Amino acid sequence: MPQGTQATGMTFLRSLARVVLFLAIAVATIAAGWALLVEYPSSTREFLGIVALLALVPVCLRVASNIANSVAPSYNVAEVSVAGPISRSESGGPIGSAPIGAAADRLVDQIERADADSSVQALLVHLNTPGGEIVPSEDIKLAAERFEGPTIAYATDTCASGGYEIASGCDEIWARNGSIVGSIGVIGSRVNAADLADRLGIEYEQLTAGEFKDAGVPLKELEEEKREYLQGIVDDYYDQFVENVAARRELEPADVRDTEARVYLGEEAAEIGLVDELGTRDDVTDKLEEQLGKPVIVQRFQPQYGITDRLGRGSRRLAYAFGAGIASTFAGEDNRFKLR
Fold first, then answer.
1. What is the pLDDT of residue 164?
2. For residue 293, what is the DSSP state?
3. Which terminus of the chain, N or C, has less C-beta within 10 A?
4. What is the pLDDT of residues 215-237, one digit of tens each?
């Protein structure tokens, strides 16, 4: 029987089993509640019993659903998606752009929920990111390393810098032929507005304690000693990145350094050991089926939002829509503002 047909059949049987088990538990619970709380002769007791029974119905339905899902789960592989620039927490983009980015705190929570889910036997980490902040990227990687079960990183368009850091924490890395992979390097930058400040007659004056406290302030020229200090921080981060990748990928640190933070297409990345396999997402799930010895059903784990989070996300969407409307008005042929 083809694997797709087999997986479909297994899904139908699991769904049927969950429905039957859910109904059996729900009916049994309601019947027991009715017998215990309603069938007594006291009218006051009967009234209270009905009220209590109505209050218990949602609870028993939830319990029945949880038991049914644990006994006959509808999935056995969890998928999380790292898409966009990586940062500590999600935030809205500038006016005229939608909220973007991969929030490390949310992603770590998704991986930990998948790890705690008894139905999940493997983890698929989808990557389409140019990288981002260093420590948040490492936090996601550490969460993937802690997952108890097979982990596969699957790159689509881009798996660079912090994205590759995350991928290196998985047991295997897959990519497409046209995927951009690598960029094992660190970048630090500062704006130098000292000349502009001079032309505008702005003087920089700041009270600090500690010689390097204001290193990198854009309104003054960067002194050589402070430049070396900032470069040293970048170099230290780079050393950590190289050592982490070399250890996880079983590569020589010198070979990782030889990449000089280049990016590679999937095939070349596989040749130098940055990628294990090339293939589509279907190829990845076929590999997981071999590892698990059973059909794979993938459940995508997504962020869980409370009421406050939902209200915040809603207001950000509204602000984005309003900003986009204003931007589109000024972007017309007769209303273009440009800096020359």
1. 97
2. T
3. C
4. 767 666 777 888 888 889 889 99
Mean pLDDT of 243-257: 95
Q: Are 148 and 170 in contact (CB under 8 A)?
A: no
Domain boundaries defined on the chain: 3-71, 75-183+262-330, 185-242
Higher pLDDT, 242 or 323: 242
Specify the higher pLDDT residue, 158 or 40: 158
Helices (H), 152-306: 162-167, 194-200, 224-249, 253-258, 266-271, 281-292
Task: Given CATH 3.90.226.10, say whether it is the number of domain 75-183+262-330.
Answer: yes
| Contact between 331 and 104 (Cβ < 8 Å) | no
CB 79 within 8 A of CB 298: yes
CA distance 277 to 7: 24
Residues 6 or more apart from 238 whose CB is under 8 A from it? 185, 186
DSSP assignment, residue 223? P
Buried b (16+ CB within 10 A) or exposed e, 146-179: ebebbbbbbbbebbbbbbbbbbbbbbbbbbbeeb
Average pLDDT value over all residues in the chain = 76
Burial 53-91 (b: 16+ CB within 10 A, else e): beebeeebeeebeeebbeebbebbbbbbbbbbbbbeebe
Structure tokens, 265: 């297409």
Q: Which residues, including other chains, have CB under 8 Å from residue 252's CB and lie 6 or more apart?
A: 246
> Which residues are the active-site residues?
161, 213
Rounded distance, CA 273 to CA 276, Å? 7
Report pLDDT digits (tens) over 135-171: 999 999 999 999 999 999 999 999 999 999 999 999 9
Residue 300: CB atoms within 10 Å: 13
Helices (H), the chain: 3-37, 43-71, 104-116, 134-146, 162-167, 194-200, 224-249, 253-258, 266-271, 281-292, 307-330
Which has the higher per-residue pLDDT, 202 or 240? 240
**Residues 88-113: what's their mean pLDDT?**
74
